[in-house]
Amino acid sequence: MRTRTLSLLALSIALLAGCEETSRQKITITGSSTIAPLIAEIAKRYEARHPDIRIDVQTGGSSRGINDPVKGLADVGMSSRALRASESDGRVTHVLARDGVAFIVHASNPISELTDEQILGIFTGKFDNWEQVGGNDGAITSANRANGRSELELMMKFYELHPEDFQVDLISGENQHGIKTVAGDPNAITYMSIGASEFDIANGVPIKLLPLRGVPASSKSVASEQFPLSRPLILITTPEPLPHVSDFIEFARSESVHDLIRQQSYVPLQ
Amino acid sequence: MANHRLCLTSNWQDRVAAGILWIMAALVMAVFIWLILSIVRNGLASLSWEFLTAKPSNQGRSGGIGPILVSTSLILLVCMGVSLPIGLGSAILLAEFTPASQWYGRLVRRSLDVLAGIPSIVFGLFGTVFFCQVLGMGYSILAGGLTLACMVLPILIRTSEEGLNSVPQEYRLAAASLGISRTSSLIHLLLPAAIPGLLVGFILGLGRAIAETAALLFTSGYVDRMPESLLDSGRSLTVHIYDLAMNVSGGNQNAYGSALVLLLLLLIINGSASWVANRFRQSRIIQA
Amino acid sequence: MSRFSKDWYLVWGLRACAFVAGAITLLIAIFIVAESLPALRHVGVARFFTDSSWQPNEYADRGTFNLVPMLAGTLFIMTGSVALATPFGIAAALFCRYYAPSAIARIYRRFLELLAGIPSVVFGFWGLVVVVPIINQIHPPGQSVLAAILILGLMILPTIALMADAALANVPADYHRAAASLGLSQWATIRGVILPSAKSGLFTGVILQSGRAIGETLAVLMVAGNIPKIPTSLFEPARTLTANIALEMAYALGDHRSGLFVTGLLLFIIIVSLVACAEWISKGRIYG
């Protein structure tokens, strides 16, 4: 038994040694954890077409994505917010896709639109019954998103809310946690990536997207930049990136990755 | 008279107790059958040979779980390959040689008791700092397997120790009186006699490792392609289920399918363990 | 002479194994403390217990870091689930060992073994789509302390049952025969003889599962609602220490990340005290 485990160990070490390959060109990408899963998928496809290139994707937040390329720590940075004026020096931005967030309720909820005040009231605890915002009698179950999630950041910035302003009933983490919460509770409301919601609605999950400030919540209105609660997903490089890096960025912005962008619930640019 | 009444009441109590126990046992079983049936009913539609071998596509909504099964096996291999020798060695020391090194054994035991209680997410935190960052393994199968190895060690040691303890003291005395060295008596007498116990430990450890999710989220990562080496990130079956259920719109169907596969794997592991244990018991030279 | 040296190598080899096993706990403690230090320094220990709420930030002075609600959530959910699972678990074990016909007992035990291996993710998933909507009908929001207690109780039940079963198996058969020859009824035997003599084993099982209940992460995260506020009723949501780490770790930076390691440190301290308590109560017989 011992010798067998030992030989297994030896085998694993051999496997380890076998993977040391240095001949391939490498692209290092760092930054926003919102974009990282998408870029990882795109990188996988790119690697399959260019076997000589290896792409390493690491997270660490948008600030890191904005700074690393300039410091030479990464070839490409990822940011889920537009650059500030002070940050534009020495950087070139490439918009990859857009991300839109809208409010969702259960499909059986008669509410068809909420005003900004009503939304603020629901999430700050001022309203706790759907009657107060024009719906049926029923206690509102408001669900916030976990600290640090991009949807929460976007929503706080949009409504100029602070973390301590929220008075909610639940906090959900991943997208499907939020969607399953609303689908299982006729009186629940949360906010959610529009792409993810559209996918589930198309598959019969009983939720519905509410329009915001009169603009319907859809991939179309996000792509056309009409939907107010949305933002660009950006790749950042130095003004003159290496040829294989530019080639990758061109690929990431091409139509051949639109399916990947939609899979990650984001909206490709038209 | 008093005696008679005592007898009667205890008879009455006996029946009530038996009734309550039957009801409780049935209730427990009913809830679990409900759970398992819902997995089987929903998962069966996904299950096919192709599902087991194909690559996942569309974030796992379609395609299969081939690379995920490979990653899972590699993680388990690393985990058991590292923890088994260490665990068995520690168990032998604690069970057979502790009086010789009392304080040392006590210290190791205390430490293992704590280790057994540490939440898997704390193992995940530790693994991500120690294996992934400090030792530079990154998000990898190796880091995940080693983190799991730390986690299953206390279970392995505890059960192996129990297995060794269950070997009658007479064996050791007889061996000693024959002048057999402790090493030989260990290898030829005690270990074979303790094998059923050791196997149970192995199975429990394997079961815990295969079911673990939280510790792997931060160590072996999410990547769902076929691993090329142990330093690649690989997604375990449980992480796949978690991701499908919590991250992927329309992932429920394959989440159920993967859960069913996991159940079947557990069934196979448990079944083969008890089969092996039985065979050993029958073929042992010395019948206890 | 050669025999002596062979034994000598063996003992030191075993000691080395045990050293590795024992040192892991220390290593984990060191790394968790080291990663916690920035937050402990910038935020200070006191603020983790006296701040107005949990609204952490990358920079210590811009956030609040109160961990008491998560501590309370963890303790409520752990106590509830252990209180729920213990009687049912022991009942299932008694049923298996003394009441069920042997064929049923064997199947029942196999089933419990299978259940003990079901990953927490599966329980959480099932809880979120089946149990939570039912509770929501009774009292919204559904995701609540109660849901967490039910799911966690179910999760630890099979292992409590198996450990209780093993503890019962260790009661010498003589006890049973002696009790029978005294004319004691079955229930009287169980209550008066079997349970007291298996007490230590049962107790160990319950303590170990309390540890698991404290440490469970993903299943609880999926059904508990995760509001960092002290719950005042069973129907209110709560956040556990483990869920706190899993929810926020992926996005945390700076003092926030370090604060999550402080959460892990707190879990570690709770587990150490739990083990210490258990050993004190059972007077070092936790391994007995």
Total strand segments of chain B? 2
Overall SS class of chain B: mainly alpha
The total count of helices of chain B amounts to 11
Helix/strand/pairing class of chain A, anyone?
Answer: alpha/beta
Quaternary status = heterotrimer
Shape descriptor of chain A reads elongated
Global outline of chain B: globular
Strand count, sense and closure of the main sheet of chain A? 10 strands, mixed
Instruction: Give the topology string of chain A: H per helix, E per strand.
Output: HEHEHEEHEHEHEHEHEHHE
Can you tell me the residue ranges of chain B where pLDDT is under 50 for at least 5 consecutive residues? 1-8
In terms of topology, how is this protein built?
The complex is a heterotrimer of chains A (270), B (288) and C (288).
Chain A: H1 2-18, E1 25-31, H2 36-49, E2 53-59, H3 62-71, E3 76-79, E4 92-106, H4 116-123, E5 141-145, H5 150-159, E6 170-172, H6 175-183, E7 188-193, H7 194-202, E8 207-209, H8 219-223, E9 230-237, H9 243-252, H10 258-263, E10 267-268
Parallel strand pairs in A: 1-2, 1-3, 5-6, 5-7
Antiparallel strand pairs in A: 3-9, 4-7, 4-8, 4-9, 4-10
Chain B: H1 2-43, H2 49-53, E1 56-57, E2 62-63, H3 66-96, H4 102-117, H5 120-134, H6 141-165, H7 169-177, H8 182-211, H9 214-217, H10 237-246, H11 252-283
Antiparallel strand pairs in B: 1-2
Chain C: H1 2-42, H2 47-50, E1 54-55, E2 64-65, H3 68-99, H4 102-116, H5 120-138, H6 145-169, H7 173-181, H8 186-215, H9 218-223, H10 241-248, H11 254-281
Antiparallel strand pairs in C: 1-2
Helix pairs in contact in C: 1-11, 3-4, 3-6, 3-8, 4-6, 5-6, 6-8, 7-8, 8-11, 10-11
Summary?
The complex is a heterotrimer of chains A (270), B (288) and C (288). Chain A is an alpha/beta fold.
Comma- or semicolon-separated keywords:
heterotrimer; A: alpha/beta; ten-stranded mixed beta sheet; 36% helix; C: 288 residues; mainly alpha; two-stranded antiparallel ribbon; 11 helices; 2 strands
Task: Explain what this protein looks like in three dimensions.
The complex is a heterotrimer of chains A (270), B (288) and C (288). Chain A has 270 residues and is α/β, with parallel strands linked by helices. Chain A is 36% helix and 22% strand. Chain A contains ten helices and ten strands. Chain A has helices at residues 2-18, 36-49, 62-71, 116-123, 150-159, 175-183, 194-202, 219-223, 243-252, 258-263; strands at 25-31, 53-59, 76-79, 92-106, 141-145, 170-172, 188-193, 207-209, 230-237, 267-268. In chain A, strands 1, 2, 3, 4, 5, 6, 7, 8, 9 and 10 form a ten-stranded mixed beta sheet that branches. Chain B is an all-alpha fold and 288 residues long. A two-stranded antiparallel ribbon of chain B has the order 1-2. In chain B, β1 and β2 (62-63) form a beta hairpin. In chain B, α6 (141-165) crosses α8. In chain C, 75% of the residues lie in helices and 1% in strands. Chain C has eleven helices and two strands; from the N terminus they run ααββααααααααα. Chain C has helices at 2-42, 47-50, 68-99, 102-116, 120-138, 145-169, 173-181, 186-215, 218-223, 241-248, 254-281, and strands at residues 54-55, 64-65. Chain C is globular. Chain C starts with a helix and ends in a 7-residue tail after the last helix. In chain C, 55% of the residues are buried.
